[in-house]
Amino acid sequence: MSRGMMIIGIIILALFTFGVVNIVQNYQTGNELDYYLLRETTEAAMTDAVDIGYYRLYGNLRIDKEMFAESFIRRFAQNVANNRSYSIKFYDINETPPKVSIKVDSSTSATFNSETLGISNQIDAILESTYKTNEFITDMTRRGELDYSEVDG
Question: Cα separation of 124 and 109, whole Å?
Answer without folding.
Answer: 28
